[in-house]
Design brief:
The complex is a heterodimer of chains A (about 300) and B (about 60). Chain A has about 300 residues and is α+β, with helices and mostly antiparallel strands. In chain A, about 40% of the residues lie in helices and about 15% in strands. Chain A has helices spanning about 5, 25-30, 40-50, 95-105, 125-130, 140-150, 175-180, 180-200, 200-215, 220-230, 245-255, 265-270, 275, and strands at about 15-20, 35-40, 55-60, 65, 65-70, 85-90, 115-120, 135-140, 150-155, 170-175, 235. Helices cover about 65% and strands about 10% of the residues of chain B. Chain B is built from 3 helices and 1 strand. The model of chain B has no long low-confidence stretch (mean pLDDT about 85). Classes of the chains: A alpha+beta (about 300), B mainly alpha (about 60). Chains A and B meet through strand 1, helix 2 and strand 2 of A and helix 3 and strand 1 of B.
Amino acid sequence: MTDYIARRSLDQYLFIPQLFQGFPEIKEALISNRVQAGFLVAPLAVALRSQGVPIKIVFLGHRYGSAAVVKKGGSVKTVADLKGKTVAIPSRFSDERLLLLRALEHHGVRAADVRIVEMPPPDVAAALASNAIDGFVMGEPFPSQAEMGGYGSVLFHAREYWPDYMSCVLVVREDVIQRRPQAVQVLVDGIARSGLWLDSGQSEREYAAEFVGRYYYNQSPSLLKWALTKPLDRVRFNPLLPRRDDFELVTRLMLENKLIDKPIAFEEYVDLRFAEGAASETAWDYPVGAGRLDPEKADD
Amino acid sequence: MRSLHLKRTMSPRKLAAALTLWVLTLTVLHVSLNVRWDSVVNEWRPESERKLNVAYIPVT
């Protein structure tokens, strides 16, 4: 969602967006310097940093946009019903896993009583449809995909158990931060402007669903439209500044769940200067209208 | 029987040409469909001018 306008931020294209199908692959690509920046789930980014991988979190990708989905009309009606069931998550190091654990704890269900399995996000809707799993906790548009398909229903949205929930964060390799800070700032500025533009209203979101579905995600625009508008705050793109409180909650939950073995300071894994530099950015001046679906022809 | 007859009558030269054409077709299709040329060209640039590869997955 955030890459399209960011790559058009300069006269010459400065970024090459690379589509991956899972977070472990992005992790490997970052470590091997095949990609210099990328979107990772927040706990994975923190864990990588704590293991010495030279990356820093510079911005968020979005807030909310994750939900638990179960079989429509199935036996799971409440979180407590998940006891003994199989639930898919994108990664052991994902906010979705921490979200599920928070919901289970809230309802007095032990994590050990639920079979939690890792699964690439694009596979979960089909796995639910075929009864291979009883539910999943994932980022959009996969909850919407199950809802639209008629076989899934949302058990809970992230906001119900985690106010100001954040999922994907933008990480950049430290050598790039040191050598090319202007390029990183352009990327963060572009994402900030995209977020403000997306939060402008329903028509912007519907338009974004059209071009992102067609040109980037290879997904049905109607699916993305559902994910971005039902309801309008299902996914939010502000505020995207990495906040200390949010990350301290994540690291506390990571420690409790043994995803990291010792506390890690906020400054160790976050570089705030780019988010602060983007604080005065405004939404793209990009009116929505018919016949504007070619990103190559769009105006800045 | 007809196909056996055809096989016997195809010259080695024609067979080699057909095979070469087939391999060339697959190669051209592979190179045009599966190779990210913008990434390949990017690798040839000096580091200071190199574009940044930004990874994302198809979630929000």
